[in-house]
Every structure is written in structure tokens, then in C-alpha cells.
Amino acid sequence: MKPSLALGAVLSAAALAAAVLSLIWMPYDITQLAIAQKLQPPSLAHWAGTDHFGRDIASMLMAGARTSLAVALVAVGIGVGVGVPLGLSAAALRGSWLDEVMMRGNDLIFAFPSLVIAILITAVFGPSATNAIIAIGIFNIPVFARVARAGALSLWTLDYIRAAQVAGKGRARISAEHILPNIANLLIVQGTIQFSLGILAEAGLSYVGLGAQPPTASWGRMLAEAQTMVTLAPHVALAPGLAIVVTVLGLNLLGDGLRDALDPRLRGRVA
Amino acid sequence: MGRYILRRLITLAASLLLASLVIFALIEVTPGDPASFMLGLNAAPETVAALRDQLGLNDPLPLRYLHWVAGMVQGDFGLSYTYKVPVADLVADRLKISLPLALIALALSSALALPAGVWAASRRGRAGDALVMGATQLGIAVPNFWFAMLLVLVFAIKWRLFPAGGFPGWSDPLAALRALTLPAIALALPQAAILARVLRSALIETLGQDYIRTARAKGLSRRAALTRHALRNALIPVLTILGMQFSFLLAGAIIIENVFYIPGLGRLIFQAITQRDLIVVESVVMILVFAVIAVTFLTDLAYALVDPRLRRHA
Hints:
The structure holds two protein chains of two kinds.
Chain A: H1 3-24, H2 57-92, H3 97-111, H4 114-124, H5 129-156, H6 159-166, H7 171-207, H8 219-227, H9 234-262
Helix pairs in contact in A: 1-2, 1-9, 2-3, 2-5, 2-7, 2-9, 3-5, 4-5, 5-7, 7-8, 7-9, 8-9
Chain B: H1 2-28, H2 34-39, H3 45-55, H4 61-73, H5 87-122, H6 127-141, H7 144-158, H8 173-207, H9 210-217, H10 222-259, H11 265-274, H12 278-306, H13 309-313
Helix pairs in contact in B: 1-12, 5-6, 5-8, 5-10, 6-8, 7-8, 8-10, 9-10, 10-11, 10-12, 11-12
């Protein structure tokens, strides 16, 4: 295993572990305010310090990991759930009107400023984690549709797929039984990348106040709140940012590493 | 070539038509009555109804759509509900800030990314390559608004070299440029990281081509083969990314402009969304989509001119 892949796996696992652990245990209760303890620098008791309400930042980061990962993961789920069947059917019916409509539709969605539309959706339908998921998920659909279609198209020309056709299997069944398992690699790699992009998008949305709402903890909103007191207590602004960087970096390294490991032809090439 | 251009033009028109329908529908399902937003909470229902009538909000849907599209074709993007001025004027005003900001960010990211990409590709697999690749991984992972906060903390608050936010206007160009410096750096960093990676992989791809081997066999040095032959061909994907990044920088500045309180296009959209100034949202999004589609069209056309192989496959 390449060191970058190992590092990516470790960082991603750490973020995931923090999120899962936060469900059953956190060092402090983040719903309890302790104004007397506010804006403390990192110490043994609060190893990432406390925020302006005296809440333990390490505990907030753990709860924030849960929000970030959940939003990004479900958004990837939407992209895979809708995009992959679309891409598979477009490839199965190559050159048909469905294929044409889907590809043009894809191009069109890519032309839309995704952040602006996401902000529009979350502002209009009410800022919440659910609407953030939908806003991010919608833009994952064309990405997975494109990857699934491209991967499937190259497989449809292979002999064993022809053989399955000759044996009397329908296009839908071939797509599910033979094509899907063989493009799983591509989908996993793309899934990792979209996962990390989703975390950045969620952070951006909650930073402008359109993501998860209080009392749900979120890295983006922690940063927004920290902005006003960045001179008083820089550690309040540093910790959530570092959490985002570590998680996104981990997922990107994992995605790149997996791509190289799964496809030897791509070894050493990075896009 | 003529037929190719014609076909691309038809696709372009169809995309724009479809995009306008999507945007119109999106705004249509948006809850919140612009008339009540404009008049405030205490407005009498009759006043709201009268204003709705005046704004044409009571017209049938298809008529309103046609009205909007016909207006845009003539350069009339409607009247902002909140600012009470033509949207076109608003956009033109904001572009005076957002366009230079995007251009500076683009110049910065290219200045950073091009040498870094070339250097990494020429040192493929060695320490220098790993260093550049590691730095770009970090650049992609850093949220630009957090990077912006750190820049403010260090360069505006600690060292007082640049203002922490706001925009003084172009009457004092030097002050204006100083105000745009930190936002431009914050925007440029992730872009530079992506650009460097694209250039590196494109260069590595072209360096493996037969004509590079031929050039080397002729006795050309590695460096000469790289700069004279590989770089020129590797620039094609780089230009595509640059074109896409430019439109992203115009709209993508939405959060950065909020961090620095810069009254640009991004802040205009953001405020319009929160104030339900839907005509502004509708028109600005349409303009952005048009920009992306037009840039894509022009790059495709440029490629087809340069590389005849692309005409047949497109």
C-alpha cells in the first residue's frame, strides 16, 4: 500500500470514528452552556479549548463530524441512487433518445453555478441539514450518471457481454448482473471524491447560515461564529477549519489511492 | 466546418432555452411572495394585490415566461424588487468589482499553477513532484472561506498590510486593489491546486507520446522537448479548466465576497436570495449559465479550428 493511501485511510477512519463515537460518548455535554469557562485556550481539561458559550470545542468537533459526514454521505447516496441507474440505462440504450436527452441534460446541469443553486434551494425551502443534503445531492446525480455511462459504454463492447446477449439476457439484466459489478471500482473512487466535495459544500452552506441549524453542531457554523472573535481567541477559528482540512484531505488521498490501486493502468497519473 | 458550427449553434440555442425554462420553473416553485417582501409585514392585502398586478405577477405563467425571455434578448433583465433599479444596471455595477476580482484570482492561480505543474511533471516520481502534489492536495482540501479568515487574521489584523474587508470603490485604484488582494488570494489557492494537477497529468500524458520520443531521438534535450512540444499540447485541457474556472470565479466568489463584505456579484445574488428579490436571482443565474455555455461553445470551436480530428467526433 502506498503511504498516501494509508494516510488517507487513517485520516478518513479518524473522522468517521469521531462521528460514530459522538453518538454514544463525548468528553462534555455540548448542550450545556458554561459562560464562566468561555474562550479558554486549549488545556488538559479542554484539549481544543472552549468557545464563546464555554462549550468544549473537541466535543463540538465530534458532533460536527457527525453532521458533515451524514450530510455528505446521504448526498452521495442520492447521486448514486439516481445517477447510476440513469447512466446504466443510457449506456444500455446507446444512441437512443434517452441517451441523448440524458447527456445533454448532464451538460446543462454542469453549466449551472452549483453553489448558487444550492444556496437558492436552502434559502428558499428553509435552512436545514435535510435541504442541504438535497441541494448537494442534486449536483451529485449528473456526476455519477456520467461516470456510470462512460464505464458501462466501454464494457458493452466486450465479448462476454455479447455472449450474455446471445444467451438471451435482456439489457436491464446484463446491466445489473455484469456491468454494475464491473464499474463498482469507478463508482467507489468517484464516491470518495464526491464525499469530500460534499463536506466542503456543507461547510460552505452552514458557514453562510444555510446548513444545519442550532442546536445541531456543524463545522461551517462554528467557523462563522468564530469569525467575530478571531482576534480574541484564534483557536476557536483554527480547530473547525483543521477538522475540515483533515477530513477532506483524508478522503481525497483515499480516493486517489484507491483509483491507483484498483486500476494499474492509471498508476502515477493524477487528474 | 460550417455544418459543425451550425450544429453546435443549434445545441447552444437549445441549451439556453432549456436553461431558461429550468431557472424559471425553479423560481416559480419558490415560496414567498415578492410583493409582500417588498411592502413589509404590515402592508394591507389590497396594496399587495395592486403591486402584484403592477409587477405582472398575476399574468398567466407562459406569458410571464415569454415576457422575461423577450426582455432578456433585448438586454432588459427586469426591475429589481428591492433596489428598484434595472437588474442590468445592478449587474453591470457589481461586475466592476467581481470581474477584476476574478481576473486577478485567475492570474494569480495561473502564475502559481503553471510553473508548479511543469516542474512537477518534469520531476515525475521524484521528491519535487511529491512536494507539489502534496501541496496541491492540501490546497484542494482547504475551504476557501476558512483560508480567507486566516489571511485576514495574519495580514489584516496582525500585520495591518491589507484591509480586513469592504471595498472603497475605484476612485482610488490603489486602495481598491489592496482591498481585492486578500479575497483574490483566497479564491486563487484552491483553483491553483486544481490547475497544477491538471497541467501535470496532461504534461505526463503528452510526454509519453511518440512525437516526444521522436523529438528526443532527434537529439532535443528533455527540457526543450517539454517546452517546445509537450507544453503546447498539454495546454488544451488546461485552457478548458481555465474557461470553466473563470465562470466559477464569478459566481463562486459568493462566499468569499461575504467574508470580506465586498459588494460584488456573489454578494448581490446572496442578498437577493435572502430578500426574495427573485427577478435579480433569476436573471443573474441566467447570465451566469449563459456565460458558462458560451465559454464552452467558444473553447469547442477553438479546438475544432486547431484540431480537425475533433470536428468529426463532437
